[in-house]
Amino acid sequence: MKLCDFPLLSGELAQFTCDDLGADWQIGEAVSVQAHGNDYLLRQGNSVCVGKVEGRQDRTALQVQRGLTLWVLRNRQGDVLQLQSLDLVEQIQLDMAISVDEAIAEQLASRGEISAPDVPTAVGWLNEQFISAEKAPTAEMDRVFLGRFDNASDESFVLFGAGWRGNVKRDAGVLKLMSVTRLKGATARVAMAVGKISFQDASVAVRLQSTEQRALLDAALRDNGSYLRLWQEYGALEWEQARDCARELGSLRFKSAELVEGELWAWFLKVDADHLKDFRKRWKALGLANTTQVELGDRELDLDSEVEDAPSRADRARRRPVRGVLRFERDGVVLVPSQDRRSERPPTKGFIYYSLSGDEAVQTRRARARQSINEGRRLPQLSYLLEGVAPPSARRRQLDGLSSYAKSCFKGVPTKRQIEALEKAINTPDIALIVGPPGTGKTQVIAALQRRLAETLGENSLQHQVLISSYQHDAVDNALNRAEVFGLPAVRIGGRGRRDEGGVDPVGVWCERKRKEISVRLDAIRLNEPLTQPLEELDRRITALRLASMSAQERQTQFEQIDVLLRQLFDLDVRLPAHIKDRWDEFLAQQTRVETQRQANEPAGLVRLVRALRTSSIGFADDGPDRVHQLERTLRRNKVNLQDSEWSLLQRLSTVADATEADLAELAAFKRSMLDRLSPDYRPPQLKQALSGEALGLLAEIEHAIDAPLRQSRRGISAVVASYHAALSQAPNEAARAVREYASIVGATCQQSAGKAMSSLKELSDLDASEGIEFDTVVIDEAARANPLDLFVPMAMARRRIILVGDHRQLPHLVQRELEDELISRQSLTEAQAKAYEQSLFERLVKQLREQEKVDNIKRVVMLDTQYRMHPTLGDFISKQFYESEGLDVLHSGRPAQDFVHTIPGYQGKCAAWLDVPLQDGKEKFLKPGYERRAEAISIAKEVKRIADSCGPSLSIGVISFYRAQCDLILDALADEGLAEEEDGEIRIARSYRQTESGDERLRVGTVDAFQGKEFDVVFLSVVRANDVVIPDQKEGEERERLLNGKYGHLRLANRMNVAMSRQRKLLVAVGAKHMAEGPESEEGVPALAAFLKLCREEMAHGR
Asked: By three-state DSSP, how is residue 1086 classified?
């Protein structure tokens, strides 16, 4: 800060007239003023002079005598120095370092004082605004102005700067800047501190570099091992497993590749029958799915060679080998590549082998994310949080969690917990967790969160700043479904083969919805606005003139029609300015003349007659007059326009026998002129039929002259709406491109958030993809389900905050148990380290952040506690069995029982029921890899058929089992009842039963994993396990647990039971052997199932 910029300096100038005034006096710098006899000695660095004060002698003398006045040179006029003054209450010799944290940086960024909420940038700005450095070469000191302590016990004071005021407080022996505000009005008590003064970066990133913090992390890693390294080992084993799979599958040689005719882009690869048989055998032995990706190459895949036999990654990226899925046929295989890669063609012959490209890309993205986290590139405290070490917490600018704009995302009034979830998520210093039990409206919270985040970003940093991610496509699409921020949808990056799997592009859906909305609105406007029709017609005709290929006659017709429309608009008080109207009239008249001339010159034979004119003396003497006469008669008959001089020439030369040299020269000139006029236009059509620059310019002026005033009035709304509608209808790709460019929300799966499409959106090269992609905020839905390695990828991209949404009391994270067991065995892991593989990162953080709250008093975990999905009786059941039993909050019901009243035949008045299929109807059967029970499948199919046909397409039904084999049996039984049918070799729900009348899914059969996030009116739960195993009472401990697991299987997994029993809205029906849920053994082994049977009996006892 320059001293002259300090706003508290006096407005009155003290003027000193000096002798021998040198040239080195610096405007804006401090001046020392001392008494020198009757005069004053003025000093600034090495410059010294003696001066007399003009006027205000007494006041100046008092200020100098007191010795607490700061003098600043404001101006110099000849030998006169003009000084401003500031009377200080105190001058202190003091060295001072003031800490600046993230809250100050955010505060300054929100006011537009700095470009980004970056602490080093804020420190630089504060040094410029508050600290004045002494320029003199002999002194090394800084000045800062401050308000004196009003209370000795209160260790806080105020800084004054160049129009700013800073509040400073001493906390734990450190001076901290608490806030910065505008300096308003004068203040009577100002002190000045002189010494080594600075603002210093006290961000979390800097504090984490301290010896103390590094020692804490090192101790945690030494005692417990590195959480990140544990998962790195898991990832390495996954990669090893993928390579083993590729090695065991081997290669299959193909002899030729032919394009398969049909809609689907596919290639038939001819192979040897015996080789194909062996290849299929290996494929089946490895248990590879029909979605497994293979790759084509011109040589076999050899992963065991010491030399790098497989093409390098850079080489593969350069040539992009053809990849796809295989469909086995009798004499070959069909390769179906991704349908967006139709330009790629396979080699004419070569080899088919397991594609490691996807696995390699996953490993690379994970490695980059892990490196970014370890280096603390964005959220430096993230590695500490993941390793289970409590880092210092960043102080952040506190924001309201709910705004009126965000509130509109909720179907009703948001609950206190939903509001709290928004508040804690917005204001978290690093990570926030929102625990969302079934039906608690977490999707609405995510939608409101997206709007609130966009509001806090500021208008200069909105584009692509919030990432919505999840481990699977459905979860991303679901989270983006309600996302519309500032009128724009989210941008969906990556995705499945949308054409084949029903994926939805939010931008495309938004454009189509807007087009339909605007079309309806435009129709309504047209009924009441007489301007609409002529304006649209005018726009259509001008656009046609610009773009369409037209003959001269067609063009003239368009000009004339435009003139008619302009006259209609004139009658409706929409008028061109006079100067444009005059130009248009003149232009139209000229075009009419040209067209008339052109038409007159068209008769056949004119060019021949002109060319026949004799222009030499010998030729003219032969039959020259006759030829001139014949041309003149033809021109008059066809009413061709000629100049008077030209008619006179033709009349004279048609009657003379001899022509002079001058006459012949004039006739030759006339002949050349006429040939130019009559010669055909050999220019390309796009040039010949294009409008002239004059016409284009005039039409643009007409458009602007009509459009500009209309847009400023209510009468122009139809034109605006019509042009918007036309843009969406005629240029949907451009509209979509614009939306993608300006949208603030981006959606992608965890892996695709670091893919090429995201790099392109962020305008980064592929090499910089994972390092360069960053977002202000990363929100991850269904976070409890994701493998931590995949969660790290989007988490590493967060610059300001990470928000994880999920429920660790539902399905567990996706890891391979056999890999866990192998790692535990290989690494000789402790019980605590082994627990890290079993426990989801979400659950780990729930416990860890609740412990950290006790240290820093910052709440980071909020559980939504009001469910709206199901009948209150079922909601209370879920709460008691799966949440309260684990010490979590009570789950309340937000809707009354009457909202769930139904008339389902056989279940009237009930919300819970048990359909008994006794043991004598058949026991469970074990078929690798799971269990099945045919009697249950048949009972379910018959009951679903009865209810579906009775209630019609207004009712949706879900059928859940814990075993894939049982799902297949149920589908077969539904096919027998006419509710399912074979399609492409698979049993699928029959078309007539696929959708409800509102367009939702009407009937679904699947495992628990396929139902998380879904809901149906009625759910049938197939128990499957039905046996007569008896567990002796004397069995205890691990042995008893093993026997209980053998008897009940998946029914013992509380998280899976939670999902299975919380998908219904109105009615849950358990189907199975009732004895499996009866007695003390079931209460011990499957408490939730036993409690549900008890609930069903209570329903019956109360007549429900």
From this structure: coil
Output the six-digit token pair for 88: 């200080």
More confident residue, 1023 or 812: 1023
Contacts of 459 (CB under 8 A, 6+ apart): none
| DSSP helix/strand/coil, 112 | coil
Query: What digits encode the pLDDT tens for the residues 246-257?
Result: 999 999 999 999
Q: Is 1104 helix (H, G, I), strand (E, B) or coil?
A: coil
Determine how β-strand 197-201 pairs with β-strand 96-100.
Answer: parallel
Cβ-in-10-Å burial (0-12, 13-18, 19+) of 861 comes to: buried
Rounded Cα–Cα distance for residues 776 and 462 (Å): 10
pLDDT attached to residue 493: 87
Whether residue 872 is predicted with pLDDT greater than 80 in this model: the reply is yes
DSSP 915-983: EE--GGG---EEETTEEE-HHHHHHHHHHHHHHHHHHGGG--EEEEES-HHHHHHHHHHHHHTTSEEEE
Q: Which of 641 and 987 is assigned the larger pLDDT?
A: 987
Q: Is the pLDDT of residue 1012 over 90?
A: no
Query: Rounded to whole angstroms, how far apart are CA atoms 407 and 419?
Result: 9
Q: What letter does residue 1024 receive in the DSSP assignment?
A: -
Phi and psi for 186 in degrees, rounded to 5? Answer: -90, 155
DSSP annotation of 460: T
Identity of the amino acid at 29: E
Residues 819 and 835: their CA atoms lie apart, in Å, by: 14
Per-residue pLDDT tens over the stretch 495-521: 654 333 345 567 777 777 777 777 777
Residue 73 DSSP SS3: strand
Distance CA 221, CA 388 (A): 9
Tell me: pLDDT of 1034 over 70: yes
3-class secondary-structure state, position 223: helix
Mean pLDDT, range 526-535, rounded to an integer = 73
Tens of pLDDT along 732-757? 777 777 777 778 889 999 999 998 88
Give 3-state DSSP helix, strand, coil % of the chain, rounded to 5: 45, 20, 35
Strands 96-100 and 174-182, sheet pairing: parallel
User: Which phi and psi (to 5°) does residue 33 adopt?
Assistant: -120, 120
Answer yes or no: are the C-beta atoms of 806 and 842 closer than 8 Å: yes
Question: CA dist 466 to 378, 416, 457, 503, Å?
Answer: 15, 25, 10, 21
**Furthest C-alpha separation in the chain:** 145
Rounded Cα distance, 1027 and 931, in Å? 12
- As a whole number of angstroms, the distance between CA 516 and CA 522 comes to 10
Whether the pLDDT of residue 785 is over 80: the answer is yes
Q: What's the mean pLDDT in 767-794?
A: 84
Query: Residue 201: enclosing H or E segment and its boundaries?
Result: strand 197-201
> CB-based contacts of 10: which residues, under 8 Å, 6+ apart?
84, 85, 86
Output 524 or 1060, whichever has higher pLDDT: 1060
Q: Cite the DSSP H helix spans in 796-869.
A: 817-827, 831-838, 841-856
Q: Report the phi/psi class of residue 909: left, alpha or beta, with left for phi > 0 and alpha for psi in -120 to 50.
A: left
Q: How far apart are the first and last CA of the chain?
A: 79
CA-to-CA dists, residue 812 to 361, 442, 653, 654, 1056, angstroms: 25, 18, 107, 107, 8
Burial 406-424 (b: 16+ CB within 10 A, else e): bbebbeeebbebbbbbbbb
Which pTM value belongs to this model?
0.77
Q: Determine the Cα–Cα distance for residues 226 and 207; give it in Å rounded to an integer.
A: 21
Interatomic CA distance for residues 267 and 257, integer angstroms: 6
SS3 label, residue 542: helix
Looking at 261-356, list the stretches that DSSP marks H as alpha helix, in order from N- to C-terminal side. 273-285, 313-319
Tokens of 116: 């980004």
Residue 372, by phi and psi: left (phi above 0), alpha (psi -120 to 50) or beta?
alpha
Q: Give dist(CA 976, CA 889) in Å, integer.
A: 45
